[in-house]
Amino acid sequence: MKIMICPLNGARPVSEFVYGGEVRHAPEPARCSDAEWSDYVFNRSGSPGIKYEWWCHIASGFWFIALRDTARDVVLATYPADKARELAPVDPRS
Amino acid sequence: MFTRHESLKAAYDVVIIGAGGHGLAAAYYLARDHGIRNVAVIEKGYIGGGNTGRNTTIIRSNYLTPEGVRFYDESVRLWQDLAEDFDLNLFYSTRGHYTLAHTDSVMRTMRWRAEVNKHYGVRSEAVDAAFVRRAIPMIDMSCGGHAPILGALFHEPGAIARHDAVAWGYGRGADRRGVQIHQETEVTAIRVVGGRVVGVDTTRGPIAAPRVLCAVAGCTPRILDKVGLRTPIYVHPLQAMVSEPLKPWLDPIIVSGSLHVYVSQTARGELVMGASLDPYELHSTRSTLDFAEGLSAHMLEMFPFLSEAKVNRQWAGLADMTPDFAPIMGVTPIEGFYLDAGWGTWGFKATPVCGKTMSHTVATGHNHPLIEGFAFDRFARYELTGEKGAASVGH
User: Fold this and answer.
1) For a surface tag, which of A27, B120, B134, B387 has the fewest beta carbons within 10 Å of its beta carbon?
2) From the list A15, A45, A73, which residue is nearest B284 (CB)?
3) Which residue of B220, B284, B290 is in closest CB contact with A71?
4) B395 pLDDT above the threshold of 60
């Protein structure tokens, strides 16, 4: 991947972006157990796959979501950040 | 060098997934020290073809936490008579290891590390700029004028070794003691019954085994998915490159966290160079121009005379990173399933001690005392082992 399509700025070199990790939902801290909370804080889905991820265009400070294949390094689509809740996989326990 | 086995046996006492340095070392010590020889090492590629053959071969024990220092120091001790153990030249070469400090805050961390090291009997000391200049006369002490070297952490036992030979030595030693190494054989499933491991399925048939050790570096999350275990491990590529061979001019190993460089010169004159992790998750060992450019720029800040030197090769490995920069080792919630993972960018130096401690753990079913700080369940207990301060470069 050398070019990222930013929803705000269009096609830009990937060196202008930083990666912010997979899109995840936090469990409700007051209601979840210690084990659920530590799972959220530390554990990750580390296997290759097609994942929704946070990315930021540094020059404009614009955060957005990219759907990327982490085995092939191909971005399949990008979305504005307000799609996060809609797109992220919902934790079955919440 | 290795026996080729036409078929897998129906059952083994132990199955080790991954014929890299760590897996083969565990097999070797299981056979040599624990008398467990009915062992299969299952490798989807070839011996030492993963991170074992892709690292920059630096061996050191100048870590930050007591757990880390004790563990890596035992490894450095084991390294020193390994060639004799194997009857194979590992090109183990003690060079001295300098971690350069370009700022006061880094100098402070160097003093801290030196004191922790000395307390555990590891030879490390914080040295000043004049000391660094004498040890590395070819370095530009101002680093291009914007990152002047104030001093360093000098670690006298710092060494390099021939990485392929390490895998071959452990592999051959295990092979001669009856361990079966099966290359080009991939584990497709791990069978667990009632919370207990009972065997694995492979591309060459099923195997029954009451104990399975997973030592697969960047493939760890994929293997753990097969048994439903979650960990904090995330995978980023780590790239490295070597220059054309040059006359010997660099004796010590040089690391600069601020400039994101580590470099040593091999016996045949090549400069082996590495830098930070790639900036995002990826499960591919491709090389990038960004990396070669960035690393070269920082190399030239320290050694401007290298501007005409050519890069010969560039490659990548898959680093299984953890949030506290310490590995994840030992028993897991699945009985009989053991893990040697989370070795990120720092696993080569630990090969011997991982083999020793994991073989003990597999043989006895209990974590070896040296790996207690690296336990699988430390995250659930919020008891991390913070080694980030001793990572060779800023990640």
Assistant:
1) B134
2) A73
3) B284
4) no
Report the residue of B281, B339, B381 to disrupt the A interface, i.e. the one with the largest count of A CBs within 10 Å. Answer: B281
Is pLDDT at A91 greater than 60 in this prediction?
no
Domain B14-55+163-233+324-390 bears CATH identifier 3.50.50.60: yes
The model carries a pTM of: 0.94
Buried b (16+ CB within 10 A) or exposed e, A13-50: ebeebebeebbbeebeeeebeeebbbbbebbbbbbbee
Q: Which residues of A touch B222 (CB under 8 A)?
A: 47-48
- Alpha-carbon distance values, B327 to B19, B35, B160, B227, B361 (Å): 18, 27, 21, 19, 15
Of B279, B283, B323, the CB nearest to A18: B279
* Helices assigned H by DSSP within B35-65: none
**Domains along chain A?**
3-87 (3.30.2270.10)
pLDDT at A94: 39
Closest partner residue to B221 among A15, A47, A73, by Cβ? A47
Share of chain B above pLDDT 90, in %: 92
Please tell me the distance from the alpha carbon of residue B94 to that of residue B251, in angstroms, as a whole number: 9
Q: Does any CB of chain B come closer than 8 Å to the CB of residue A74?
A: no
Touching B: A residues 37-56, CB under 8 Å: 38-39, 41-48, 51, 53
Question: What is the homologous superfamily of the domain B94-157+234-321 according to CATH?
Answer: D-Amino Acid Oxidase, subunit A, domain 2 (3.30.9.10)
The residue with tokens 């980030």 is B388
The ipTM of this complex is 0.92
**Chain A residues closer than 8 Å to B225 by CB:** 47
Calpha distance B348→B72 (Å, rounded): 11
